[in-house]
């Protein structure tokens, strides 16, 4: 069956208040089946997730719905959320804060999704530490994410999507794509953009006015552009009796509407062909 996956860092409540509505309109046009959101704000009296998926037919879960405690800074920077075309079951929420990366309020959500006529798959909405110098923490975080997959893996290939704050040449991403080991561990996921994307696929860029101020504050270098948002697909190694082929990958939320940019990140859309039967 055909499956469309979207990931987007929605930049919490910063910027123009019309942004959330613009993201909602584009989600309706894209009609995704699985969505990974980062930096989604939720409070006792307001849910940005509800606004994002209004009238999309998607079922949503915010990390605050399942966490027992609220991580520091979540009221300002939001948390992770997930949305699926079919009702899902939350398997685990993973808090990846570490002693050297304790300012990350965005947890990772793992849900089981039954696909009609196929089987169940595990969908993980993920994020890792944002600081430029935090690659060591990101390495440990991606190993924890793959352990999360191993604990809850379903018959269909696992899909992991989110903002990883690392470029394809970083050790954390090389580990996920099977190009290097970490701590004697190795795995293999397919990077949807590497398989089917065209061009550099930059998702955090000075070309986006919403990102310019953050890039100016954090990076302080001109012409900064990075690909840090990904859709990863489980490989034959972990799912020998099923298949998931990446048919297309493209950017989304990468154009202004009436002068308003939807977020400080561009999103990624991946179209997959997934089956409980192995490919020929």
From TrEMBL:
<dbReference type="InterPro" id="IPR005135">
    <property type="entry name" value="Endo/exonuclease/phosphatase"/>
</dbReference>
<keyword id="KW-0378">Hydrolase</keyword>
<dbReference type="GO" id="GO:0070260">
    <property type="term" value="F:5'-tyrosyl-DNA phosphodiesterase activity"/>
</dbReference>
<keyword id="KW-0540">Nuclease</keyword>
<dbReference type="GO" id="GO:0006302">
    <property type="term" value="P:double-strand break repair"/>
</dbReference>
<dbReference type="GO" id="GO:0003697">
    <property type="term" value="F:single-stranded DNA binding"/>
</dbReference>
<keyword id="KW-0460">Magnesium</keyword>
<dbReference type="GO" id="GO:0046872">
    <property type="term" value="F:metal ion binding"/>
</dbReference>
<feature type="domain" description="Endonuclease/exonuclease/phosphatase">
    <location>
        <begin position="6"/>
        <end position="265"/>
    </location>
</feature>
<keyword id="KW-0479">Metal-binding</keyword>
<dbReference type="GO" id="GO:0004518">
    <property type="term" value="F:nuclease activity"/>
</dbReference>
<dbReference type="InterPro" id="IPR051547">
    <property type="entry name" value="TDP2-like"/>
</dbReference>
<dbReference type="GO" id="GO:0005737">
    <property type="term" value="C:cytoplasm"/>
</dbReference>
<dbReference type="InterPro" id="IPR036691">
    <property type="entry name" value="Endo/exonu/phosph_ase_sf"/>
</dbReference>
<keyword id="KW-0227">DNA damage</keyword>
<keyword id="KW-0234">DNA repair</keyword>
<protein>
    <recommendedName>
        <fullName>Endonuclease/exonuclease/phosphatase domain-containing protein</fullName>
    </recommendedName>
</protein>
<dbReference type="Pfam" id="PF03372">
    <property type="entry name" value="Exo_endo_phos"/>
</dbReference>
């Amino acid at each position: 069956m055909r499956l469309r996956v979207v990931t987007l860092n929605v930049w919490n409540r910063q910027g123009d208040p019309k942004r959330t509505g613009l993201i909602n309109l584009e989600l309706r046009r894209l009609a995704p089946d699985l969505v990974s959101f980062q930096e989604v704000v939720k409070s006792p009296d307001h849910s940005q997730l509800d606004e994002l998926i209004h009238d999309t037919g998607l079922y949503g879960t915010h990390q605050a719905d399942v966490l027992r405690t609220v991580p520091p800074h979540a009221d300002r920077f939001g948390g992770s959320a997930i949305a699926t075309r079919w009702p899902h079951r939350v398997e685990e929420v993973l808090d990846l804060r570490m002693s050297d990366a304790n300012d990350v309020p965005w947890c990772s959500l793992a849900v089981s999704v039954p696909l009609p006529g196929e089987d169940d798959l595990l969908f993980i909405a993920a994020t890792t530490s944002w600081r430029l110098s935090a690659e060591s923490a990101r390495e440990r975080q991606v190993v924890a994410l793959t352990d999360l997959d191993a604990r809850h893996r379903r018959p269909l290939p696992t899909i992991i999507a989110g903002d990883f704050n690392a470029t394809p040449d970083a050790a954390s991403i090389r580990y996920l794509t099977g190009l290097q080991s970490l701590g004697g561990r190795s795995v293999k996921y397919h990077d949807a953009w590497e398989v089917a994307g065209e061009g550099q696929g930059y998702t955090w860029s000075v070309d986006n006015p919403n990102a310019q101020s953050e890039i100016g504050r954090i990076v302080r270098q001109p012409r900064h552009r990075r690909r840090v948002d990904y859709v990863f697909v489980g490989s034959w190694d972990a799912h020998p009796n099923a298949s998931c082929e990446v048919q297309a990958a493209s950017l989304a939320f990468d154009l202004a509407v009436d002068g308003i940019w939807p977020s400080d990140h561009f999103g990624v859309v991946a179209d997959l062909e997934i089956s409980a039967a192995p490919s020929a």
